[in-house]
């Protein structure tokens, strides 16, 4: 695969040219020398001397966009009128909208959906609260709630800046699983206040997907809400990620022919995702996990100002390896990155055991660029959609909530999470599996249906389903 196939971004440059001063070919050459690839040309206006063209240009790195702009501005006879970034264009006005299910065409419709007839529905729900599940959007609606404190790997960028990610999650819920999801970004990072607000919002929703809330606050917020609410509360960055990671690791180990109880795993970023992934791997039989955060490997001889880290240090790193990532990664079979872009070096991967598995899952920039190590890895994966092997929680959250809503589950318990991981892993057959295809694509239609089915079965088996969907009745 060429580097151009990976991570392409495109911009449209509107350029006015004085044909007596500059030839079009010079403009194209300048763009390509700055790393851009002109993939389409639209003539907007032309007369004998002046022509205006829109050039669609793809780049592999965002930094190349500025280089191209600066270079074109220097060309004598060419004037850059404007630059449109297609990603920004797509975000104008946000990415989702509300739509009524039925039109209000006349007075009769009006009195049904609204006063006076709607009052009968309100009274029915007042008399039997369960009816909210059938007579309101609660049946099919999930809140995607963030406080903007750990947005992708961008960190604490606040609630306004978190919104595009939450809108994106809402789109995916709808497109992949027909779940109506509503993004809500809170202007508070106070644990108690978040718990209070989410509880107060909960009557509207059939489930709560917590997103991009940093650790350790995310643990308390999720567990308290789960105790206090009767609808599923699921922190996507913890469990959604762990489920998909586990499915991908089962598959990758088959390729490198290693057994789960013999591998040494190094995980960077001992936050929400890193801790949840570690726990699922321990439950699956991994014996040696070393967690590395900013100050190096977590060891139980140290006491941390973070209860989760103290627990983590007591329950991992059996050989008490200490030091930096480069120190502890020697002979590791698996690297799992859930920290920040660019922190893993080629030298570190060279020091790993034979056929190393590298899952660099930080978003949007992975811990290492796959191109740097493609010749030395056994299996490589990232969290991004523009590289092969996308290990991203989008493979789990749509199907999990689809299943949970369909059986009106009161929670998403451990059995349901494991069942979801098995469902994802089962989509790829032994014949299909190869090092570039360890995990199904987000667009593989079998994923949501298999996850949904497994989640409902596990919910029924563990008595957390309040409704048995028809196809599951014995
Ligand atoms: N691919 C996926 O599906 C997926 C899912 C969840 C999270 N992630 C990614 O994982 C990362 C962490 O997300 P989170 O929700 O756990 O956030 P978090 O804030 O809860 O945890 C991040 C942890 O990484 C540590 N960290 C940051 N920079 C580091 C560095 N240079 N070296 C070592 N440790 C470092 C932080 O100290 C923190 O403990 C983000 O990049 C996020 O995009 C990916
Ligand atoms: O949003 C994503 O792409 C995955 C994950 O939830 C993350 O925070 O990185
Ligand atoms: Mg997230």
Choose one word for the global shape. globular
Tell me roughly what share of residues is in helical segments. 25-40%
Please compute the radius of gyration using only Cα atoms.
25 Å
Count of distinct structural domains: 3
CATH class of the largest domain: Alpha Beta
What would you say the CATH architecture of the largest domain is? Answer: 3-Layer(aba) Sandwich
Query: Strand pairing plus helix content: what structural class?
Result: alpha/beta
Keywords: Metal-binding, Oxidoreductase
Domain Malic enzyme NAD-binding: 238-460
Protein name: NAD-dependent malic enzyme
Binding site for a divalent metal cation: 211-212, 237
Question: What secondary-structure arrangement, pairings included, does this model have?
Answer:
Layout: E1 9-18, H1 24-33, E2 37-46, E3 50-59, H2 63-74, E4 78-85, H3 86-91, H4 107-113, H5 118-127, H6 132-135, E5 141-146, H7 158-177, E6 180-185, H8 191-201, E7 207-210, H9 217-228, E8 233-235, H10 236-256, E9 264-268, H11 272-283, E10 288-293, E11 296-297, H12 307-315, H13 325-328, E12 334-337, H14 346-350, E13 357-360, H15 370-373, E14 379-382, H16 397-406, H17 414-427, H18 446-461
Parallel strand pairs: 5-6, 5-7, 7-8, 9-10, 9-12, 12-13, 13-14
Antiparallel strand pairs: 1-3, 1-4, 2-3, 10-11
Helix pairs in contact: 1-2, 7-16, 8-9, 10-11, 10-17, 16-18, 17-18
(2S)-2-hydroxybutanedioic acid binds next to helix 10.
């Amino acid at each position: 695969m060429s580097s151009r196939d990976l991570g392409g971004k495109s911009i449209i440059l509107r350029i006015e040219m004085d044909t007596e001063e500059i030839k079009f070919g010079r403009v194209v050459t300048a763009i390509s020398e700055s790393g851009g690839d002109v993939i389409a040309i639209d003539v907007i206006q032309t007369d004998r001397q002046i022509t205006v063209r829109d050039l669609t240009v793809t780049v592999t790195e965002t930094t190349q966009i500025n280089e191209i702009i600066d270079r074109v501005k220097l060309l004598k006879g060419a004037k850059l009128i404007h630059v449109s970034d297609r990603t920004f264009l797509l975000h104008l006005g946000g990415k989702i909208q509300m739509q009524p299910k039925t039109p209000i065409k006349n007075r009769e419709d009006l009195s049904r959906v609204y006063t006076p007839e709607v009052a009968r529905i309100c009274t029915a729900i007042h008399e039997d609260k369960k009816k909210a599940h059938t007579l309101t959007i609660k049946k099919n609606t999930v809140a995607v709630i963030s406080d903007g404190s750990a947005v992708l790997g961008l960190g604490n960028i606040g609630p306004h800046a978190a919104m595009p990610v939450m809108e994106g999650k809402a789109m995916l819920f709808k497109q992949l699983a027909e779940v109506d999801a509503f993004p809500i970004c809170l202007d508070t990072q106070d644990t108690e206040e978040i718990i209070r607000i989410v509880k107060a919002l909960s009557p509207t929703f059939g489930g709560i997907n917590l997103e991009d809330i940093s650790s350790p606050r995310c643990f308390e917020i999720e567990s308290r809400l789960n105790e206090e609410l009767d609808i599923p509360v699921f922190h996507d960055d913890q469990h959604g990620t762990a489920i998909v990671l586990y499915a991908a690791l089962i598959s990758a180990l088959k390729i490198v022919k290693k057994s789960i109880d013999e591998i040494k795993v190094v995980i960077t970023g001992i936050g929400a995702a890193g801790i949840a992934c570690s726990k699922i791997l321990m439950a699956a039989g991994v014996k040696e996990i070393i967690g590395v955060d900013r100050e190096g490997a977590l060891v139980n001889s140290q006491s941390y100002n973070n209860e989760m880290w103290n627990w983590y240090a007591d329950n991992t790193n059996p050989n008490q390896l200490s030091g930096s990532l480069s120190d502890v990664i020697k002979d590791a079979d698996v690297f799992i990155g859930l920290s920040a872009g660019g922190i893993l070096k080629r030298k570190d991967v060279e020091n790993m055991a034979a056929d190393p598995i590298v899952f660099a899952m930080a978003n949007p920039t992975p811990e290492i660029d796959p191109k740097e190590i493609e010749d030395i890895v056994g299996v490589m994966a990232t969290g991004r959609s523009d590289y092969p092997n996308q290990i991203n929680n989008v493979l789990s959250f749509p199907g999990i909530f689809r299943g949970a809503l369909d059986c009106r589950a009161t929670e998403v318990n451990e059995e349901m999470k494991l069942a979801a991981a098995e469902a994802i892993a089962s989509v790829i057959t032994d014949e299909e599996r190869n090092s570039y295809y360890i995990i199904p694509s987000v667009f593989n239609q079998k994923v949501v249906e298999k996850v949904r089915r497994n989640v409902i079965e596990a919910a029924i088996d563990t008595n957390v389903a309040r409704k048995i969907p028809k196809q599951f009745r014995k």
